[in-house]
Specification:
By secondary structure, the protein is an alpha/beta fold. The protein has 15 helices and 14 strands. The strands form two sheets. The chain has an eight-stranded mixed beta sheet with strand order 5-4-3-2-1-6-8-7, with helices on both faces. The protein has a six-stranded mixed beta sheet with strand order 11-10-9-12-14-13, sandwiched between helices. A hairpin with a 6-residue loop joins strand 3 and strand 4. Adenosine monophosphate binds next to helix 10 and helix 12.
Length: about 400
């Protein structure tokens, strides 16, 4: 079975074609700057030993034109991997916000599209773009089933005490204000994979999953089910991120409006794009920050310390939530590659049973790797995430 995974943004469209017989990626790529004067499509064909890259630069006025270009490439005589688009058996769509309407992936029909649209106010930048991707796929692949896989679905198992905010209850009932959580396909993928690596079923282990990339989030996964997660109604909450603040005192908002004259409509921008690591040291890529810190830049050092401290605090609180903790799993760009952050997060945690081996921890990992000391009560692993594969697996399972 061949599954095309689509992740449509407002001006971009990421795709990956997978052969689900062996879960191998056949081709992948991204269409960027859709709607700009000059768009760009970067396509990669996998060929056993490596990848062959093709870059096309031309005006790409909309997602439909972008998808047409993708189809041309994946079916191209030399650059392609299939001879006709009808060889694609199903399409899996990443949809960011499923709200409370979806606790599992679902075959898309008109009522599903309506329910996704109803959730647009909760994710105004993402859901409309995701819907656009669905419309284009329906038009260009008539008869091929489309499945929606939601970023939020894995977190729908959270109990009310974890997902409710201590705000007037009618904000929840009338406005749907609650914690939803994001990065769900990543947390689901690494939690399941981590349990398998221990030779156990997900139902037999308690895991804290730590997704540290451009966006950062954590989840407490009890016996295979998410019981709490750090992102909230939007992906702004939780730990500190590249440019996002994470948690802070909400009273700061009115204070800023009153005392600094910040306009309410500009606040989103401040908290999402000018905060986090960037807000503290002016940079948001952890590699740049480490190299500045090595040169003695105090603000870069402070940014790393703050980042590490916040992840550590969440580990402590999720260990308390889970009762017993079997594993801590690091994933995504920083989680997989940054030994300084992992060491900082895990040091002095033996009281929680977490004891990492600083030698094993050294380096970057593209394959699962344990980094705890022998005898550590809690196992600490790096498990590279694979959201596209999770979406493809969920697509296949939904169609079963
Ligand atoms: P992601 O969103 O998972 O692609 O992660 C992207 C982020 O990972 C980048 O912004 C970097 O901050 C971080 N990153 C990637 N490679 C490294 C590395 N070798 N060391 C530290 N951080 C890294």
């Amino acid at each position: 079975m061949k599954v095309l995974v689509i992740n449509a943004g407002s001006s971009s469209l990421k795709y990956q074609l997978l052969n689900m017989e062996n879960e191998a990626v056949m081709a992948s790529g991204i269409v960027e700057r859709i709607g700009d004067k000059l768009g760009v499509l970067t396509h990669k064909k996998m060929n056993g030993t490596g990848e062959e890259k093709t870059v096309i630069e031309q005006a790409i006025p909309d997602h439909k034109v972008g998808m047409h270009l993708v189809i041309d490439l994946i079916t191209h005589k030399e650059k392609g991997v299939i001879s006709d688009k009808s060889e694609i058996n199903a399409i899996g769509h990443r949809v960011v916000q499923g709200g409370e309407s979806f606790n599992t992936s679902i075959l898309i029909d008109a009522s599903v599209k309506k329910a996704i649209k109803d959730n647009n106010p909760l994710a105004p930048l993402h859901n409309p773009a995701n819907l656009m991707g669905i419309d284009v796929a329906e038009e260009l692949f008539p008869g091929t089933p489309n499945v929606a896989v939601f970023d939020t679905e894995f977190h729908q198992t959270m109990p009310a005490k974890a997902f409710l905010y201590a705000l007037p209850y009618e904000y929840y009932t009338d406005l749907r204000i609650r914690r939803y959580g994001f990065h769900g396909t990543s947390h689901k993928y690494v939690a399941k994979r981590a349990a398998n690596l221990l030779g156990k079923n997900p139902e037999d282990v308690n895991i804290i999953t730590v997704h540290l990339g451009n966006g950062c989030s954590m989840a407490a996964v009890k016996k295979g089910k998410c019981v709490d997660t750090s992102m909230g109604m939007t992906p702004l909450a939780g730990v500190m991120m590249g440019t996002r603040s994470g948690d802070f005192d909400p009273a700061i908002i009115s204070y800023l409006v009153e005392h600094k004259g910040v306009k309410v409509e500009d606040l989103d921008d401040v908290f999402n794009k000018k905060s986090g690591l960037k807000g503290i040291c002016g940079m948001n890529d952890m590699r740049d920050i480490h190299s500045k810190a090595e040169q003695g830049d105090e603000m870069a050092k402070l940014a790393v310390d703050m980042f590490v401290y916040r992840v550590k605090k969440y580990i402590g609180s999720y260990a308390a939530v889970l009762g017993t903790l079997d594993m801590v799993v690091f994933t995504a760009g920083i989680g997989e590659n940054d030994d300084i952050v992992r060491k900082g997060v895990c040091e002095d945690m033996t009281s929680l049973g977490i004891d990492i081996d600083t030698e094993k921890n050294k380096g970057r990992f593209s394959k699962p790797q344990p980094i705890h000391k022998e005898g550590s009560k809690v196992q600490v692993w790096i498990v590279p995430t694979n959201e596209e594969l999770q979406i493809a697996q969920d697509t296949v399972n939904t169609l079963k």
